[in-house]
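We treat protein structure as text, and this decision shapes the records that our systems exchange. Such a record has a labelled line for the sequence and another for the backbone structure tokens. The record that follows is passed on verbatim for readers who wish to inspect the format:
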Amino acid sequence: MGLSREELATKLELSSPVRVRVWETGLERPRPRFVPRLAVALGVNPLYLLDVDPDDPPLAALRLAAGLATNEVTGPGLSVMTYVRLEDGRPGADPSAKVIAAISQALGVDISRVKAAVRRSRSDHAAIAAYQG
């Protein structure tokens, strides 16, 4: 985007451009709270930074695009543990409408996007399990 590390660090209100270098080299990933801010600074969709299909992202990508850590995805009828199980794609009963609505509210995305993301997370989990098995 034509920004130096120093310029990007300033836009993100970082104390040093070293953090940007660490991200660029892949030694660390930005904390969730930086993902939306980084996307704005670079003029891209947060999902682009996460290297996922923006039309079919898993639940974790929607959470990161919203700038939230897993323990911040809670709401009425939604425990952190329930959310983590869904994000991990663990098999089980389909989440209730109340759980889907709570995730939708927490992530700021529509209900259909949450349902699709849960399906994608489960599909990814099943593919990994089959490969490891």
About this structure: Helices lie at 5-11, 18-24, 34-42, 46-49, 59-65, 80-88, 97-107, 111-132. The chain has a mean pLDDT of 92. Residues 52-132 form a domain with the 434 Repressor (Amino-terminal Domain) fold (CATH 1.10.260.40). Residues 40 and 46 are 8 Å apart (CA to CA).
